[in-house]
Amino acid sequence: MIGVVGGGIAGLSAAYRLRQRGHEVRVFEASEDLGGLAAVYETAGDPIEKFYHHLSKSEETIVELAAELGLDEDVEWHVGKNGYYVDGVVHPMDTPWEILAYPHFTLYDTFRLGLLTLDIDIRGGVPKFDTYERLEDFEDVPIEEFVVEHTTQGVYDNFFEPLLDAKFGSRKDDISAAWLLGRIKFRGERDILHGEILGYLDGGFGRLLDALVDAVGTENIETGTRVTDIDAGDGTVSSLTVDDDDGETVHDVDSVVVAAMPNVMEELTGYSCAIDFQGTICSVISMDEPLLDTYWLNVADEAPFGALIEHTNFVSAERYGGEHLLYVARYVQSPEEDIWQQDDEAVRETWLAGIEDLFPAFDREVVNWVQTARNPRTAPVYERGYLDMVIPYDLSEAVADGLYYAGMASRAQYPERSLNGGIVAGYECADRIEERAVEAPR
């Protein structure tokens, strides 16, 4: 049997791939719910994810999985309109002429930023098209230094720095230029007349999780079951111990895939990961009417949040019984931060007061409900040297033969963590287990 620690998208994907190839698998999830960061709230219509999700066109593996599970016709692509709130004004940033009209850029700023997004390096006056091919070449370059050298100081000050403040807070100066380049490549295609094309699953990504659970088999999944020990005393994984309401049970295993955060790996095996993670407080606000005209609004302001994401400007409010659904989120670098210390009611007040400051016409009477989710480790801090800190998929040399890792510290979750990255990480581990099984003597 192969044991999988964690019932999120990575663990379920690893189990699915292994089951496809004839392996006996059992998934152990410590909580009562499967799905991890893809868990949902109920609305007046379709469920909505607790943490915002969409797909970029570059994310192909999740689309292929949806097709395998019979959901290919339910993957849909919409324009996800973007805006930038600066000095009390929402500036649309979707089409070339909207970007040209952005008053905080000079024409030269816009020109240099546009070339960077097209992977064209004009330093020295001669265009080069291969400068940005290898992210590793920029892994140790500070992000401000890179942006100023490859675009302009104005692009950094008036565009990237506020975004970095919102995403990484006090850690922004530690971030690698390789991460920024990776993010630019990660983003999907654009409709020049309308904006970026993003994907969603009709009915929500919970349907993908449900289909994965069915494919793995509920009889092969245990919730409310915490793995407390992995036995690899002789250098080879041989068993794992789980704890549930009935007490401890030991399972003999041939391999183990740890599809959880690296702190779980450290607790179970002693393998230490140097990657730092940041948390998120994310609320969904249900309203009777829309707040914005755009899907994703970056906020360059002293607001308590870095972005407002109005989901129902991306997916129709009709699917949610007419509710207009707005995500309000903030990354948290330390549990000591005030917002992390607030209870849900205080967070609600912080968000609504912040919205009122930005949009004085906002009326709280349109708010139906506010639901708040928190997670202390929702995203890595992509600091310089990050690629040297990722946990290998195969930990046979570092820890024990038969031990694999598919959590958020995997290479697949770079330059941005995503559902697609979780699926890729799960597949990578399953493929390595299959390769070892094929190579093993019969």
Overview of the structural elements:
This protein is of the alpha+beta class and 442 residues long. Helices cover 29% and strands 24% of the residues. The strands form 5 sheets. Strands 8-7-17-18-19-16-20 form a 7-stranded mixed β-sheet. Strand 17 (296-300) and strand 18 (307-310) form a beta hairpin. Helix 5 (143-150) runs antiparallel to helix 6 (153-168).
Q: What topology does this entry show?
A:
Elements: E1 2-5, H1 9-20, E2 25-28, E3 40-41, E4 48-49, E5 55-56, H2 61-68, E6 75-80, E7 82-86, E8 89-92, H3 96-100, H4 107-117, H5 143-150, H6 153-168, H7 177-186, E9 190-191, E10 195-201, H8 206-216, E11 221-222, E12 226-231, E13 239-244, E14 247-252, E15 255-258, H9 262-269, E16 277-287, E17 296-300, E18 307-310, E19 324-332, H10 338-341, H11 344-358, E20 367-380, E21 403-405, H12 419-439
Parallel strand pairs: 1-2, 1-15, 2-11, 7-17, 15-21
Antiparallel strand pairs: 3-4, 5-10, 6-10, 7-8, 9-10, 12-13, 13-14, 16-19, 16-20, 17-18, 18-19
Helix pairs in contact: 1-8, 1-12, 5-6, 5-7
Outline of the structure:
By secondary structure, the chain is α+β, with helices and mostly antiparallel strands. The chain is built from 12 helices and 21 strands.
- Give the low-confidence spans: none
CA-based shape: globular
Helix-residue proportion: 25-40%
Q: Please state the average pLDDT score.
A: 92
Number of helices: 12
Largest sheet composition? 7 strands, mixed
Radius of gyration: 23 Å
**Approximately what portion of the residues adopt beta-strand conformation?**
15-25%
- Which sequence of strands runs across the widest sheet? 8-7-17-18-19-16-20
Q: Supply the helix-strand structural class.
A: alpha+beta
Distance between the termini: 17 Å
